[in-house]
UniProtKB/TrEMBL annotation:
Pfam families: ELO. Keywords: Fatty acid biosynthesis, Fatty acid metabolism, Lipid biosynthesis, Lipid metabolism, Membrane, Transferase, Transmembrane, Transmembrane helix. The gene is LOC111349314. One of its GO terms (cellular component) is endoplasmic reticulum membrane. GO terms for molecular function: fatty acid elongase activity. It is a multi-pass membrane protein. It catalyses: a very-long-chain acyl-CoA + malonyl-CoA + H(+) = a very-long-chain 3-oxoacyl-CoA + CO2 + CoA. The keyword Transmembrane applies. The keyword Lipid biosynthesis applies. One of its GO terms (biological process) is sphingolipid biosynthetic process. This is Elongation of very long chain fatty acids protein. Its EC number is 2.3.1.199. Belongs to the ELO family.
Amino acid sequence: MESPVMAYAYDITPNYSYIFEFENEFIHTDYRKWMTENWTVAFYYVGVYMAFIFGGQYYMQNRPRFELRRTLMIWNCSLAAFSIMGACRTLPEFIHVLRNYGIYHSICVPR
């Protein structure tokens, strides 16, 4: 069964100071089609993730804990840096959309 084709407003130009090459070449319809056809795959990943979480808890129940303070500190700093870079990349576009099109357009699919 084919999914209905979504109509998007293609006349909206991003407000980026620099557009990366992969952003110019990105064809969202191909990825959207793949996502609509393969959305059930996520449930398998969730199942494997939960098995690791609960299996790991059971496995480590009677074992000494790992000393992960330094590793977790590096992980958290890396995650914070990644989040800051993402915010710096998306915040100008978000402000542009809010100022020119409003809150509805920033949340909902523009028609």
